[in-house]
Amino acid sequence: MRKIISFMHISLDGFVSGPNGEMDWIKVDEEIFDYVGKRISEGNTALYGRVTYQMMENYWPTAADKPTATKHDIEHSKWYSKVHKIVLSKTMKDAGLTNTKIIGENLSNNINEIKNQQGQDILLFGSATATHSLIQQNLIDGYWLFVNPIILGKGIPLFVDIKDKIKLKLLTTRQFTSGVTELNYTVDK
């Protein structure tokens, strides 16, 4: 069975963005890009909420074509163009979208059907609202968190309305020179 792994940058106090969606506090550099790039290159399915998907769609398909494209832009743009995308949205339609499936209802059934298909783990990128929905239905199997050395004090939290305790098992940690710490957990079911 495939697993859904939530990939998220968070502040030390557990926020994934500022109150208005600000993400300018996230530290990302070549060391983190290289590390994340190796891990996601092994995946063939990405899961997004509508807002994050639209943000990705506006940038990654042509990122490699820009004269200022970095090595990371080129590599991630190639990966993004070939990866199968799943978008959680009640308002989008998948007519004409390439390699993209929209899930707007029956979240648990649709996600479990995808998890039962052959393939690698499904990476859930950002997408706080989508993550909240999946957490509430016990559909996330792991958390790949990048804890940034900042306390925001307010914003959009990663964990809200948790009904039952979620026990985790720490798989790996890594400290980056930027001060970001990676915490890789699996849900201990």
Automatic annotation (TrEMBL):
<protein>
    <submittedName>
        <fullName>Dihydrofolate reductase</fullName>
    </submittedName>
</protein>
<dbReference type="GO" id="GO:0008703">
    <property type="term" value="F:5-amino-6-(5-phosphoribosylamino)uracil reductase activity"/>
</dbReference>
<dbReference type="GO" id="GO:0009231">
    <property type="term" value="P:riboflavin biosynthetic process"/>
</dbReference>
<feature type="domain" description="Bacterial bifunctional deaminase-reductase C-terminal">
    <location>
        <begin position="2"/>
        <end position="180"/>
    </location>
</feature>
<dbReference type="InterPro" id="IPR050765">
    <property type="entry name" value="Riboflavin_Biosynth_HTPR"/>
</dbReference>
<dbReference type="InterPro" id="IPR002734">
    <property type="entry name" value="RibDG_C"/>
</dbReference>
<dbReference type="InterPro" id="IPR024072">
    <property type="entry name" value="DHFR-like_dom_sf"/>
</dbReference>
<dbReference type="Pfam" id="PF01872">
    <property type="entry name" value="RibD_C"/>
</dbReference>
